[in-house]
Amino acid sequence: MSMLKKILTTAAMASVLAAGAAQAEPVRIALVAKALGIGFFEAANKGAEEAAAELGDVEIIYTGPTDTTAEGQIEVLNSLIAQRVDAIAVSANDTDALVPTLKRAMDRGITVISWDSGVAPEGREMHLNPSSAPLIGNTIIKLAADHLPDGGQVAVLSATSTSTNQNIWIAEMQKVMGDYPGIEVVATVYGDDLADKSYREAQGLMQSYPDLDAIIAPTSVGIVAAAQAVTDAGKVGQVNVTGLGLPSEMAGHVKSGASQSFAIWNPIDLGYSATMIAHALATDAATAEPGATIPIGRMGEVTLDENGEAAMADPFTYDASNIDEFSSIF
């Protein structure tokens, strides 16, 4: 073999090997939580890892700030942009504050979606709601009203005042209040998804409203803190805590009677679905256009509406009849 031929052959083989190495590079998807250390998001990460294993060419980067602030998420997002990840899937602490940073990510070719708690449309390609906002809003007030046949006072313990999903769900709840005559919402307070602050806010509600019948907490941190506050105040059976929570964290409070029932979608499914969508968009297997249908593996498929949003599934109610079945799962 001539020297020239050897050189050309070697170059060709190197090119093939380089191409193979490039094809072997995993799709890096960053799953950004509102904050680290929250069970809901840790369960979502399990679903993301499940999707990654199923897809076979995905690396999950699970991350988030140490507190539920937009500033903390922006710092995390800037780091991910610098790492040149392929996709960012974020549960936002603020609808609008993340937009400039996420627009910069998209300008650099990074796929951006929001899930659970949305980003304004200009800051993402699509948003995955865990369920439909009207259904969630109706569910959280119905959970309280079902145990108040004669009406009564209820209060809302939310996450942050800027939390996208919380505010939408509360607004949807207010729209259907006419369907629950006799139920009065006396206050809405914010625990910032911090256990200690949520606990203090729940205590404050019971002190400010001695006739309070129920606390609705549409946040997995707040509902546990409120149930503990009710227990510590000796008001089990007097104040019912309901809303959205994790079976593993609420099992004891259901059994004690501090919570008659609560609801949640499966966060494992949510992390799984968000990862499937991010991968499909990042690899151009799907597009984020109104009316587009995107497959989400074992969860089926979602169809985007005119706002670039899709809903995963209906929330499910947990109570004493089924809490043991699910509390060991998530």
Structural features, described:
There is one protein chain. The protein is built from eleven helices and 14 strands. The longest helix has 22 residues, at 3-24. Helix content is 44%, strand content 20%. The strands form four sheets. Strands 2-1-3-4-5-13 form a six-stranded parallel sheet, sandwiched between helices. By secondary structure, the chain is α/β, with parallel strands linked by helices. Helix 2 (39-55) crosses helix 10 (267-282) and helix 3 (70-83) packs parallel to helix 4.
The share of residues in extended strands comes to 15-25%
Strand order of the largest sheet: 2-1-3-4-5-13
SSE-based structural type: alpha/beta
Distinct helical segment count: 11
Low-confidence stretches: 1-22
Q: Overall mean pLDDT score?
A: 93
Shape annotation:
elongated
Largest sheet: 6 strands, parallel
Helix content: 40-55%
- Please give the radius of gyration in angstroms: 23 Å
**Intertermini distance:** 64 Å
Order of helices and strands: HEHEHEHEEHEHEHEHEHEHEEEEH
What is the total tally of β strands? Answer: 14
Could you write a compact summary of the structure shown?
With 330 residues, the protein is an alpha/beta fold. 44% of the residues lie in helices and 20% in strands. A 6-stranded parallel beta sheet has the order 2-1-3-4-5-13, sandwiched between helices.
Layout of helices and strands, plus pairs?
Blueprint: H1 3-24, E1 27-32, H2 39-55, E2 58-63, H3 70-83, E3 87-90, H4 99-107, E4 111-115, E5 126-129, H5 133-145, E6 152-158, H6 164-175, E7 183-190, H7 195-208, E8 212-217, H8 220-232, E9 240-243, H9 247-256, E10 261-264, H10 267-282, E11 293-295, E12 301-303, E13 309-311, E14 316-319, H11 323-327
Parallel strand pairs: 1-2, 1-3, 3-4, 4-5, 5-13, 6-7, 6-8, 8-9
Antiparallel strand pairs: 10-14, 11-12
Helix pairs in contact: 2-10, 3-4, 5-6, 7-8, 8-9
